[in-house]
Amino acid sequence: MDNVIKVLYVTQEIYPYLPESEIADICRKLPQAIQEKGKEIRTFMPKFGCINERRNQLHEVIRLSGMNLIIDDTDHQLIIKVASIQAARMQVYFIDNDDYFNRKSTTQDENGEDFDDNEDRAIFFARGVIETVKKLRWTPDIVHCHGWMTALMPIYIKKALHDDPFFSKAKVIYSIYDNGFSKHFSPQFAQKSILEGIEKTDLKSVQNDGSFDAVTRLAIDFSDGVIAASENVNTELLEYAKKSQKMTLPYQSPENYVNSYNEFYDQIVGQ
User: Fold this and answer.
1) What are the distances in angstroms from CA 220 to CA 1, 172, 180?
2) CA torsion sign, 171 to 80 to 107 to 100?
3) Distance of CA 16 to CAs 85, 92, 202, Å?
4) Which segments in the chain show pLDDT lower than 70?
5) Which of 15, 55, 81, 95 is buried most deeply by CB count within 10 Å?
6) pLDDT of residue 92
């Protein structure tokens, strides 16, 4: 078992907990398929308030819950829940907090407006995943991030956790989707994101720009590999990744992506 590659999936959507979408479908099927190919997996997503806990049989994991995370000088309790997709023999861990994830929608209000605190929710989600994986005492070889709410995972792993025994050897892959956001993150986003080990210069991509493209560039900056997960991803972002000399994988059709991603994982680990 020591030679088995371990893949941590961090995503903002998984079907059937949220409605079908490109990212939700990939993050439902991909972990199962990769597990069936002999790799070990763990999967995390936010516990948005619209997720029906009773129907999906979520329950709190008391031994993992209870820690407080400080976001913008305010304490927020980290609550961990778990559920199983029986057909896939796959567990999903949920990052929860009453302040950030209790509302009955995901990232937008009933009028389709992005929530003002989405940047804080992204910070909390990334840090919550990291703390929970450490409590699980699980050491991933690959961290595969899906969606803009996971954009801080790469810099946290590569800078704040570069000496941490659970993450120091982890390779980070960032999948770019065309599920952007319209309301820019605030000018304070960079400062709020800083943890020990991260310098202001590391956050240059978002110092004066809180757009989706800027947040994506930040994720690319600290990733080992980048995947175009949507067919219509901004080509400028892919060019940015290539110019940064990151391993890149172009868009793969639904029929091909599992095998292509699995080969990409092996290449990344073998770097």
Assistant:
1) 31, 10, 15
2) negative
3) 9, 11, 36
4) 1-2
5) 95
6) 98
What Å distances lie between residue 157 and 139, 171, 223, CA to CA? Answer: 12, 9, 9
Determine the Cα–Cα distance for residues 267 and 15; give it in Å rounded to an integer. 28
Instruction: Give the chain's end-to-end CA distance (angstroms, integer).
Output: 21
Which amino acid, 153?
Answer: M
| Residue 185 identity | F
Q: pTM for the whole thing? A: 0.96
* Nearest-angstrom CA–CA distance, 229 and 226: 9
CA 265 – CA 7 distance, rounded (Å): 9
Q: Please tell me the distance from the alpha carbon of residue 3 to that of residue 71, in angstroms, as a whole number.
A: 37
Q: φ, ψ for residue 54 (rounded to 5)? A: -70, -50
240 has which bridge partners? none
12 neighbors 149 (Cβ within 8 angstroms):
yes
pLDDT of residue 167: 97
63, two tokens? 């031994």
Structure tokens at 158: 């590569």
Give which of 175, 267, 271, 268 is closest to 228, Cα–Cα. Answer: 175
Element of type H or E holding 236? helix 235-243
Q: Tokens representing 168?
A: 């120091």
